[in-house]
Amino acid sequence: MIKYQSSNINSLSQLTLDRGLHYGDGLFETIAIHSGIAQLLNEHITRLSESCLRLKIEGVDFLKIQKEIEQQAKITDEGVLKLIVTRGSGGRGYSTPDIVNASYMILQYPLPNYNRKFWNKGVAIKKCELVLANQPLLAGMKHLNRLENVMAKMEIENSEYQEGILCDSTQNIIEATSSNVFIVLNNNVFTPKLDKCGVSGVMRDEVIKKLHENRINIEVLNIPFEDILNADEIFLTNSVIGIWPVAKFNERMYSNFPIARMLMTSLKINYDV
Amino acid sequence: MIKYQSSNINSLSQLTLDRGLHYGDGLFETIAIHSGIAQLLNEHITRLSESCLRLKIEGVDFLKIQKEIEQQAKITDEGVLKLIVTRGSGGRGYSTPDIVNASYMILQYPLPNYNRKFWNKGVAIKKCELVLANQPLLAGMKHLNRLENVMAKMEIENSEYQEGILCDSTQNIIEATSSNVFIVLNNNVFTPKLDKCGVSGVMRDEVIKKLHENRINIEVLNIPFEDILNADEIFLTNSVIGIWPVAKFNERMYSNFPIARMLMTSLKINYDV
Q: Measured between CB atoms, which of A13, A134, A149 is closest to B94?
């Protein structure tokens, strides 16, 4: 399934000691490759470097990594490159003083084999029971501490649902199991603030930018769960899927997604069957 | 530094795909080895198996792992064995459906070279600024999502402090950066409930048991931070250190630790210089 792996880790023994494995002490990026181009690569690398600053992960050669991804994208043509960066090996317990070299891994996966109708007709979603914990210190980052997402995804595995909506303890919507959420109410678009929990997706930023360019009102704010029940339109975004309109949430069905359609056209996301 | 590694992972390529690395989707145990005996091994394996049930991690051969640790303990004589168990390799994204074989790794470290006075005279601690997030679904487990501990430990690195006190968002005490906390007030002992966050240490359970055996009143409850300021005695526990009395917290100094001393004697923890 994996066609390519590249890393500055040279041995099984070294990776066994890596802090990514021991503590989830690192970050990742999932980059779509289309026609040999790594999509939104600058944005991915920018998010990664900002998160490294926040986690105080040092010694990452971003330029080298970016060049390697660009080269590998050409060979990949169509697929996904996953980049993992960790603080590296070493340190006694949680302490980090003697670590100077971050680790990185680049893995090539095929594009996921999703049903084309998820883009064309929309997906079915439900609310997950799992409540996301508030941790402002880690909020927004695509870090390697992802047990909440793993547990939330279990709630929809082997079900009719493709994604699950996740709320925080104040019952504000935050995100979906592996995507960001946008809702449309009276031609205004809203997406949750991610300053207490959730992952701030690269595609989320891109969609916000496109909405601004198209002079559609977009607001980033706290969204109570009730608001999604009244939405005229709901759509999900991430780097690999681009945009999925929502066809079914709870008992409500949607068959028109004008804002999602406009964005998919604008972002050149092919949604024809 | 590492003298021994054992695992059911056979290649760098396999470990690169492990969910322990990608999502922190696993657990660990840190087991002290003294005189060739793995201390509290049954308790460690019990906690691990209970946590595997909670995380729905399947296919762990606990009996085989326990036997291997017992054998390696004999050769180690004095040291630490760290056991990591993960959900294994595979699954698309966060999903877990096709995974049947958990991964495990056993790593041997020397005993940490702590100053003997930490046991004899006590340690200095301070309150960390980091606030632990409430996630009841993961609370109590020694899982691999440990970024909070890494970030908290940074607050005391290169300082006079050996450990930091961590509170939750309601300003209840939860634990220390890599240990559990006990406080003594009027000959009653209190330790925080860990049903919303924190790690429920094997040594914490052992200390609670010893207090019961010695007919000292011990209560597990929510402890507001203010209570630690008035404590007659504070001590920290984990599997490797056993018990550290606290000599200094904020501006308060402690030189007598009668309960900690009694427990150290009872648990055969050598605190003589």
A: A149
